[in-house]
Amino acid sequence: MSTPYAYFKKQVIPLSEAKIGVMTHAFNYGTGVFEGIRGNWNEETQTIYLFKIPEHLKRLRMSAHICRIEIAETDEELTSLIMQVVARSEIREDQYIRPLAYKSSEVLGVRVHNLEDDLLIFVAPFGPYLDSDAGIHVQTSSWRRVEDVSIPARAKTTGNYMNSALAKTEAMLNGFDEAIMLNNDGHISEGSGENIVVIRDGKLYTPAESDNVLEGITLETVLDLAKREMGLEVVSRSIDRSELYVADEVFMTGTAAHVTPILEVDRRVVGTGEIGPITKQLAQRYFNIISGRVPEYMHWCTPVPLAVPVKA
Ligand code: PMP
User: Is 156 a catalytic residue?
Assistant: First the structure.
């Protein structure tokens, strides 16, 4: 059994010892920003491949800037800390690394100024989040995505996930796998933890960045592959709900969800009702890249080799 480790209050310690006080500001008011980074386990090489760390750190800083949270550590320090936490935890399976910068003062009072900031990192085993092999059924949520004028969706704040959680639970209790939220003017924004791509007549469409979405790293990766490797056209613009119903293929992207095909939206079959050819090709390529199996994309991966276990 592995012992997961965490970086907490400037030290790498066992995760079980990393505890915050009940008055911690971020716990009470959702004043934290975070990232989810995948560590993908490759059995053949006994190595964990961390995907696109610089991109995740860049987004973490962007979220922190919006929320006036200071991050004391440099990117080099954060990368090294992430690698240390992963190496010491020795989790020999797919995992999820969570850096979280937050208002750590133990005081009451709603604000983001005149408070202390801290940053923690933990790692946890994390297998498939959605059934990306079989595909999923989704529902348009009755909950609208948070607006940029309320809490910016482009900031990955802890507080924003109440919006996501309400939508996800509504969808699941209604018998669906995931929710798709609309923004206030009725355009598609995103899933509870995923971006959305719609394919019509061989072109890929994704919601405009101004339609209240998190600027997804998986999305950017997959669209890049579609353009460069498959020669497909990619369009970023507002998307209507009914465009999902008449699409040839729809899929979700996310660090947790990878590339997950959507087979039904609001009880309407998408395309043929089977996983479409473009989605299938992108999902396969993405999986091979993130697990360190494609040499030309190794620069997107940070390898953390684990010692070969000694057989008793
Ligand atoms: N939207 C939301 C709301 C998310 O939580 C996530 C997961 N981080 C995404 C989109 C996908 O972003 P990424 O591909 O960077 O994980």
Answer: yes
Q: Residue 183: CB partners within 8 Å, gap ≥ 6? A: 144, 145, 147, 189, 211, 212
Q: What percentage of the chain exceeds 70 in pLDDT?
A: 99
Structure pTM?
0.97
Separation between Cα atoms, residue 94 and residue 71, nearest integer Å: 27
For 189-216, what is each residue's pLDDT tens digit? 999 999 999 999 999 999 999 999 999 9
Centroid of ligand 1 to alpha carbon of 206 (angstroms): 14
Which is catalytic among the residues 10, 156, 203, 311? Answer: 156
Q: Which tens digits make up the pLDDT trace of 101-150? A: 999 999 999 999 999 999 999 999 999 999 999 999 999 999 999 999 99
Atom of ligand 1 nearest to the CA of 164: 3
Could you identify the atom of ligand 1 that is nearest to the CA of residue 192? 3
Helix axes 277-290, 217-228, angle to 10 degrees: 110
Q: Is 36 in the pocket of ligand 1 (CB under 6 A)?
A: yes
CA of 252 to the centre of ligand 1 (A): 10
Of 212, 152, 222, the residue nearest 184 (C-alpha) = 212
Q: What is the per-residue pLDDT for 2?
A: 80
Q: Please check whether residue 285 is in contact with residue 225, taking contact to mean a CB–CB distance below 8 angstroms.
A: yes
Q: Is 253 in the pocket of ligand 1 (CB under 6 A)?
A: yes
Residue 125 to residue 172: CA distance in whole angstroms: 23
Select from 214, 253, 286, 290 the residue to mutate for testing ligand 1; criterion: most ligand atoms less than 8 Å from CB: 214
